[in-house]
């Protein structure tokens, strides 16, 4: 939490904000279509200040261990809000308040744990495999062999666990990587970026690994993993020296979320059918155009 004598003052200022239902609408676009991040600076001053402080100081436990700040999740939040404005800007606060209002929350424009839980639910609902588990559907069988294809050497990371992926997902992955290499200088300069270190994983081998390492807690690894479908990929998006490519410490995940590679994925992976898992910057799941994860029918 943020502590300080100025918080009551911020709360009083926030109470003066005009309700979204009756507030006048100010343009968030400047000349040439550029986004104006300082729109309504007086009206949104209090939440702008609060967000600027909580961005790196808020003490909270979104996934169990204590974290400080919410910078790790900023790319996903900005994408959801449809703004590139910084969290200390009036435009960000207004966009956040609009999101809160649309989801039945008090439209304060302040980022808090309750708002994050709504974001989390929205993002999880876009993962068909996870929603099937929520709806208590049985864990699916792995895809038949005819649906699986091999990665080529340039697509395999040195720390890879598997070298298989469903063929339709592999096609989407290759199209996405080609676009990233054309659009992101960081990715074009480093062939290691976006290599796959985990794709399809055999359920029996995965279960044995879970038992051996004792980390199938549903957060770091699930007993019924989406990797068994051949539609989930773990992509290399950078790492802190000395830590693993899938290290889940707050510092590791923050480092990854700051990379140009990850930020491009957040903005563009959906063009190719991939959706994120907010806790793991490296983990992405492909969703078919029909909205599910099942594979194509057998060849005739």
Describe this structure in words.
With 300 residues, the chain is of the alpha+beta class. The chain is 37% helix and 9% strand. It is built from 11 helices and 8 strands. Helix 1 packs across helix 2.
The percentage helix is 25-40%
Report the CATH topology name of the largest domain. Answer: Muramoyl-pentapeptide Carboxypeptidase, domain 2
Query: Strand portion, in percent?
Result: 5-15%
Cα-to-Cα separation, first versus last residue = 60 Å
Name of the CATH class of the largest domain: Alpha Beta
Helix-strand pattern:
HHEEHHHHEEHHEHEHHEE
CATH architecture of the largest domain: 2-Layer Sandwich
The outline comes out as globular
Give the SSE layout.
Elements: H1 7-15, H2 45-57, E1 59-60, E2 67-68, H3 74-81, H4 90-102, H5 113-124, H6 128-134, E3 148-150, E4 164-166, H7 167-183, H8 185-189, E5 196-198, H9 203-213, E6 232-235, H10 250-257, H11 260-268, E7 274-277, E8 280-286
Helix pairs in contact: 1-2
Name the features.
300 residues, alpha+beta, Muramoyl-pentapeptide Carboxypeptidase, domain 2, 2 domains, 4-stranded antiparallel sheet, two-stranded antiparallel ribbon, 8 strands, 9% strand, globular, disordered N terminus
Brief digest:
By secondary structure, this protein is an alpha+beta fold.
């Amino acid at each position: 939490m943020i502590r300080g004598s100025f918080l009551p003052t911020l709360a009083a200022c926030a109470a003066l904000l005009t309700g979204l239902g009756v507030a006048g609408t100010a343009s968030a676009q400047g000349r040439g279509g550029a986004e104006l991040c300082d729109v309504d600076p007086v009206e949104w001053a209090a939440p702008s200040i609060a967000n600027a402080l909580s961005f790196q100081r808020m003490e909270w436990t979104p996934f169990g261990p204590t974290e400080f700040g919410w910078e790790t999740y900023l790319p996903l939040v900005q994408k959801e809000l449809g703004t590139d404005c910084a969290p200390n800007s009036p435009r960000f606060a207004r966009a956040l308040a609009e999101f809160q209002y649309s989801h039945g929350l008090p439209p304060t424009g302040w980022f808090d744990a309750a708002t994050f839980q709504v974001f989390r639910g929205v993002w999880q609902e876009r993962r068909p495999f996870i929603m099937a588990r929520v709806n208590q559907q049985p864990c699916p069988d792995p895809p038949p062999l005819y649906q699986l294809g091999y990665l080529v050497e340039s697509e395999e990371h040195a720390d890879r666990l598997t070298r298989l992926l469903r063929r339709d997902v592999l096609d989407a992955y290759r199209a996405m990587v080609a676009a990233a290499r054309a659009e992101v200088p960081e990715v074009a300069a480093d062939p290691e970026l976006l290599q796959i270190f985990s794709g399809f994983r055999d359920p029996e081998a995965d279960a044995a690994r879970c038992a051996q390492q004792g980390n199938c807690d549903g957060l770091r690894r699930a007993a019924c993993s989406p990797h068994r479908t051949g539609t989930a990929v773990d992509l290399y998006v950078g790492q802190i020296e000395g830590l693993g490519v899938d290290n889940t410490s707050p510092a590791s995940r923050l480092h990854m979320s700051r990379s140009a590679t990850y930020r491009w994925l957040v903005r563009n992976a959906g063009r190719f059918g991939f959706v994120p898992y907010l806790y793991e910057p490296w983990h992405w799941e492909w969703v078919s155009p029909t909205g599910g994860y099942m594979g194509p029918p057998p060849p005739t």
